[in-house]
Amino acid sequence: xxxxxxxxxxxxxxxxxxxxxxxxxxxxxxxxxxxxxxxxxxxxxxxxxxxxxxxxxxxxxxxxxxxxxxxxxxxxxxxxxxxxxxxxxxxxxxxxxxxxxxxxxxxxxxxxxxxxxxxxxxxxxxxxxxxxxxxxxxxxxxxxxxxxxxxxxxxxxxxxxxxxxxxxxxxxxxxxxxxxxxxxxxxxxxxxxxxxxxxxxxxxxxxxxxxxxxxxxxxxxxxxxxxxxxxxxxxxxxxxxxxxxxxxxxxxxxxxxxxxxxxxxxxxxxxxxxxxxxxxxxxxxxxxxxxxxxxxxxxxxxxxxxxxxxxxxxxxxxxxxxxxxxxxxxxxxxxxxxxx
Length: 340
Hints:
This protein has helices at about 1-10, 45-60, 120-130, 140-155, 205-215, 280-295; strands spanning about 60-70, 70-80, 90-100, 105-110, 160, 165, 165-170, 175-180, 185-190, 230, 235-245, 245-260, 260-265, 300-305, 305-320, 320-330. By secondary structure, it is of the alpha+beta class. The protein folds into 2 domains: about 1-190, no CATH class; about 205-330, no CATH class. The strands form 3 sheets. A 7-stranded antiparallel beta sheet has the order 1-2-3-4-9-8-7, with helices on one face. Strands 10, 11, 12, 13, 14, 15 and 16 form a 7-stranded antiparallel beta sheet that branches. It starts with a helix and ends in a 10-residue tail after the last strand.
């Protein structure tokens, strides 16, 4: 059966699933600006985009179109689950559609901390529910193949690359690759996008223009080349994903202390000049949304001034006040790049 499957893939002339996985695919971001649009938008309920993301949104996921260009558009979905220790475990799904509203590529990254010892059912559930909406039978095949892999190939040396177990298959719609470290990657057979969207200029500035302000707020930043900064005195951190020097997404952690209705930990302690890694067009509304969560100790996910804003808050109330810590993400990374 294994030999027959490999033979079919070779005869078909398409990329073999057992070749090393490239994330992102080679060359997709090696192009000049192609009418890049980085303003996040809600996903319409109709069309392929609506059909793909509808099952996830019904299950409590947040989904948005995070960027687009002349050739295609990128969709990004996320859900956060908390364990007994109130630790957030996020799961995401990424989609790329062409300008004719056809699915070109999708990624359902692994959610497991220790993928070699756990069966990642969340990937199968998310992928099956969305792919079934546009490709009849594809979802059932996803569940079957991942279940078979978990049961049969986890301890088998077949399909290993550098010690990593993996499997793959193809149908009338796409080629599928799955392994417990990367999750499931889906590449459509009848649609492609040569120039993937990469814009972020609507909401983000450059790291070189922001790093001095971060240092003045007490962050230890060694950019370039490091893309993360630490602020030891407040258990703070700041990290970015980049395309060149341009910030694509930013993650940072900040505390909050409310006593007698007043904020005792001003945002200016970490950011004395404000959130200068954001453009002036979005800085004020995004800051106001963050301050609202810092006052109330509540989480948030949504689009603010055309910008994806995610706030995962942990808080404890005490007599006359509130203490909280917020993990914040601004913007979505480029499709097929890490971190997700």
